[in-house]
Amino acid sequence: MSAEATNPVSAAEAATTDVAVRRRGRARIDLRRLGRAALLGATAGPAPRDRLPDAIGHVAEAHRAHHPEADLTVLGRAYVLAESSHRGQFRKSGEAYITHPLAVTLILAELGAETTTLTASLLHDTVEDTEVTLDQVRREFGDEVAYLVDGVTKVEKIDYGAAAEPETFRKMLVATGSDVRVMSIKLADRLHNMRTLGVMRPEKQARIAKVTRDVLIPLAERLGVQALKTELEDLVFSILHPEEYETTRALIADNPGAATALDGVADQVAAVLREADIGAEVLVRPRHFVSVHRVRLKRGELRGCDFGRLLVLVAEDADCYAVLGELHTCFTPVISEFKDFIAAPKFNLYQSLHTAIAAPDGAVAEVLIRTHRMHKVAEAGVVALGNPHVGQEPDGGAAAPGTGTDDGERVDPTRPGWLSRLLDWQQSAPDPDTFWTSLRADLAEDDEITVFRADGSAPGTISLPAGASCVDAAYAQHGEAAHACLGARVNGRLAPLSTVLGDGDTVQLLLAQDTVSGPSPEWLDHARTPAARIAITGWLRAHPESAAPPAAPRDPRPQVSVPADRRSGAELHAEPVDGEPPAAARPAGCCTPVPPDEITGFRVRGGSVTVHRARCSAVDAMRGLGREPVTVRWGDTPQGRVTLVAESFGRPGLLADLTEAIAGFGAAVVSANVEPPSEQRVRHTYTLHLPDAAGLAALMRAMRDVPGVYDVSRARHSGGLG
Question: What does pTM read for this prediction?
């Protein structure tokens, strides 16, 4: 199978973009002819501005279409260096190797990349595959070009072994954090490699296609480069799902009248807009293969209009809404299909109005409405933003909103969200396998939400993937300090950490004051972000005693019984008073002392002695009543009875989890009380018989580790004076 045969993108699909419209008058580029020109017609030195090597003429033509005033001299010099350094190297398909950097550069030129990106693209394999050094590139072309070339240069496999691929992607992503043009070059590089993948062994094709599907396509989506993303999707589709691809290809081939159906609706839409005196260009955009496949799965049998969409291009933002009003007035709108990505742009810069209309003949057509500038950004994404270090559009016009600053400081609109999170958590994933797995999981998230911090501190918002919980918000805001998180308030109401957040929610995280608390293994069930999962896993590995529950007794069921006589439990002895025989001593119910608490006793009616913890509030009350304390002491029996109060956020299964934690220490539940929830907060009071009172502190820690529990304390009420 030839390299060209592996490319499933039809000529009709390519003709729908602005780039394709400009290319209609040009012959198809022949990479083999370019290879021969590279071998036979390369210039020996820098080419004059108007005399570039023939092989780079197509790149120059595409570049000048976007940047009429661009100085092409540097491109000529870069081509000469690339051609001379790659001379004698050939691709597996048999073409001269220089055809690859030429093709990658042409892809970027068609998208409107500026001169620096194209220069680096021509040189992107020189440092990796030839004798050219990075210092040489820096001397001849400057720091920016050298940075971009270094960003896409693979790490040495001899140094990293099997970890070379994930570490190469880590390096590229870190470089992308400072300059998104690094990833633009990588995406174009992968697109040309995928186009010519047919010469590889099937197993290698599948491996490369899977990495493209899991990593490169999601990155293209996040960077907004739809023109590259859609073609990569089709190429991956043809390799990994050949049967479905062939079915889709046949479906498109068997419906040649699909374009005619959309042409008719397009003519009606154009007539309506002309009558309303709205200047607009109405185009038919055939769906690419994967899009047709998805629509078929969603709708079953396809009709003519399902094979494409209408694209309406206007001059100003206000015109978009004017077009929408006319369409919804003159046609029957499908309200469920309406989306406004102009008022609320996607996190990848995408802006457009989406709607669907029913024509008089019953045909339903999807319509995209956007300005020419929006269309440029929708197709080329960050490539259309040009140099991220200056606040100007590539064509010299005004910068897109939020893409530049007066002081020249770099502002990348993709950086505050997914890219910042990625760069943060990758620092905590030194293991290549962890990084690679986490990267794929992170990129698998299709959408993003923004939540607001209730404390008002800067920055006031947190960007998270859709489906993130309070656990993710805690680690995004507090880092490893989130290990001590007890709960949260979401929109002012107490909520468990498992609560899934929605776009626009306000979140306040509640942290314990001590540094002993740590995350529960159950937190991993609620963590969606790699940052949270890596931090939780790291803490649990460092504290294995917290990751596994304590050894359970033979009968793991809680030993629940009715309230018993208080005299059972730890052995207590009261000293004789005024020659009277020793009185029976029992622990007070208000503070339930256990060994080795400091204690004091008081005689009560009936002659017995009630024993309190020395700091119990009842002690002061008894002294205020004139009662004289009685000296008491603990016996040798280690068992004891205690009342504990657990404060928690309400959730299903909480009572069962608490009693299981108690039973794990062999404690018997003498009595239990659960107060009705108040603002989602629940109070559990347990009176427990402990086989060994020395284990009380460990039991309380285990109860605090139950998800949803934010405090466990000894009972401190003032009742029960005896």
Answer: 0.63
